[in-house]
Amino acid sequence: MSAPKKVKKVVLAYSGGLDTSVIIPWLIENYHCEVIAFAADLGQGDCDAVALTKKAIATGASKCYVLDLRKEFMEDYVWPTVRAGAKYEGTYLLGTSFARPLIAKHQVLIAEKEGADAVSHGATGKGNDQVRFELTYAAMNPRLTVIAPWKDPLWNLHSREDAIDYAQARKIPITVSKKKIYSEDGNLWHLSHEGGILEYPDKEHNYDMLQLSNTFEKAPNKPGYVTIGFNKGTPVSVDGKKMDAVELITALNKIGGEHACGLLDIVENRLVGLKSRGVYETPGGALLYKAHECLESIVLDKGTLAEKQKLAQTYANLVYNGEWFAPLRQAIDAFVDSTQKVVTGEVKLKLYKGNIIPAGFNSPFSLYDADLGGFSDVDTYDQKDATGFIRCFGLPMKMRGLLLGKKSPVDFGQPLPAIVDKAIKASKAKKK
């Protein structure tokens, strides 16, 4: 086994959880270097600066930074993704995905401030987070050495059970146990759960891990309502009350969580090629996505909306794959920002046992005309005009039918079903 690369000072992305708690002493034991811990407060609820600093230093760190990044997280990472309408594989609202680049960015800034020559993270070699951290390191400062213990030849912990044993042997306080071994990641936007029984998609679990949401069974038997206001695609109010980003998502998490909204149990395709199952709680986020989609449906023209929906998938893939600082994501942001100039208005939602039902929405830029969209005759639309439109629009299909003769334009020359073939022959015989 080759000797580890010589490093003097490492900045570790630190959460105080199982993995990063054992990594501090592991780095010291194997790299004989100074370790500086850095924890980002993204609203995960357990980011007590004093407690984290005390724990990190007791575990061997020389110092610990704890930065409140909640405002930056919501305004510069979450809101752009909401405006883009990005959902990975149509469901996942990217709660962990866009948190990692923000953490890695400030990790690099601290490394530069402290004169560190390396950065480290606790992401495993089987997950997506390793990519998100390391692509950001590359974009921000490619000269830094990256130490990823789970991929390091010196790392001899092969499971979370091994990590628990390692921590207990060194008397490192941890909250996870072998009985309840879920791997969790939380912030203002969401809370994710992986591991344990969730590794077996054929097994039903009892949702004993939920913290933000009710189960569907425990949600109220009466529906609730909430009205969300937007200004140029950005959420700005709840039930008529103006709020900043942190206040707003906190309020919506409480409302949505009560009604079991945004609760997902999914199997996703990780970037590294494997599938993984996770439970996600994104109550406020689910309400925002639904409201934003409702508002866009009345203010964006057909072509713009269609193109935006295509780019939303590209945007989701970029964010999921850790390419937050890629030029393409920034270019899509420019397009999205242009479309959002008219996404202003209010959306009322009805919430019932996980269901999010539109209950009315309006905008000063609405393109919806109640008379034109109804069934009655109006001056702006002559129904007889549709006759010529259909003739032109359907001309390619008509010509194919004429030129193929007896051949089926659907089956491309394959024998027609007997009943259709019989009808065609009868029609031609009648004409003769």
Care to describe what's here?
Helix 5 links the parallel strand 4 and strand 5. The strands form three sheets. The protein has a five-stranded parallel sheet with strand order 3-2-1-4-5, sandwiched between helices. A five-stranded antiparallel sheet has the order 10-9-8-13-14. A four-stranded antiparallel sheet has the order 6-7-12-11, with no helix packed on it. The chain has 432 residues and is of the alpha/beta class. It has helices at 18-31, 49-59, 70-84, 99-114, 129-140, 160-169, 245-258, 283-299, 302-320, 327-339, 370-373, 385-393, 395-404, 418-431; strands at residues 9-13, 34-41, 63-68, 118-120, 145-147, 183-186, 191-194, 224-231, 234-238, 241-242, 263-269, 275-281, 345-352, 355-362. The N and C termini lie far apart (90 Å). It contains 14 helices and 14 strands. The protein is elongated and about 95 Å long. It has three domains: 9-69 and 95-178, HUPs (Rossmann fold), CATH 3.40.50; 190-300 and 343-366, Argininosuccinate synthetase, chain A, domain 2; 373-431, no CATH class. Helices cover 41% and strands 18% of the residues. The longest helix is centred in the C-terminal third of the chain and has 19 residues, at 302-320.
Low-confidence segments, given as residue ranges, are none
Strand sequence of the main sheet, in spatial order? Answer: 3-2-1-4-5
Structural class: alpha/beta
Q: Under the CATH scheme, which class of the largest domain? A: Alpha Beta
**What's the number of extended β-strand segments?**
14
CATH architecture of the largest domain: 3-Layer(aba) Sandwich
Main sheet? Answer: 5 strands, parallel
Helix fraction, binned, reads 40-55%
Let me know the average pLDDT.
91
Rounded Rg: 28 Å
Q: Could you state the CATH homologous superfamily of the largest domain?
A: HUPs
End-to-end separation: 90 Å
